[in-house]
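Field guide to reading this record: the first block holds the primary sequence, the second block holds the structure written as discrete tokens, and the final block holds curator observations. Each block starts with its own label. This record concerns Xanthine phosphoribosyltransferase, catalogued under organism Galliscardovia ingluviei.

BLOCK 1 — SEQUENCE
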Amino acid sequence: MKELEERIRKEGTVKPGNVLKVDAFLNHQCDVALFDQMGQAWAEHFAGKQIDKILTIEASGIGIACCAARHFNNVPVVFAKKAQSINLDGDQYSTSIYSFTKQREFPVIVAKKFLNPGERVLIIDDFLANGKALRGLLDICQHAEVEVVGIGIAIEKGFQGGGDDLRAEGYDVDSLAIVESMDPESGTIVFR
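BLOCK 2 — STRUCTURE
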């Protein structure tokens, strides 16, 4: 998606350790018009597939997933929580993921009542690097006995291999911008 790539070039900041900051429009301050365009792009890619729910992970995936849901007949958006709280009751699916940006493990939890066996789920998230967060969501989907019909990613760090691994396993991964390389010294970002 050319507009997303241009926003990354103009407003993204490359930090040491393969960190790409896009907080001006994606994961701190949200450009809802851009999110809507992203949802339209995913709707075009996944056209013809029955989607019952969109699944994401808190926090940055929620806004993107909600905007995308408008393009999928306003299907419900379910988000995995990263911490247990008193608001979570009843049976739950849980797993743990390793966050690349936070550099630590998180539990991820979804109430069983929101994912029903046989449902067709589209996973949406803001970033895909090595795929650890997605693996956690896929684990929850497997336990819930739902079918993952696709994975929509805003920005994929192609050089970290997570997306390539998932595609090799047969998942339909649609990343709107795939970063091939980035240099923290020059700030250069190259797209696939």
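BLOCK 3 — OBSERVATIONS
Residues 2-79+112-191 form a domain with the Rossmann fold fold (CATH 3.40.50.2020).
The helical segments are 2-11, 32-45, 60-69, 132-144, 162-168.
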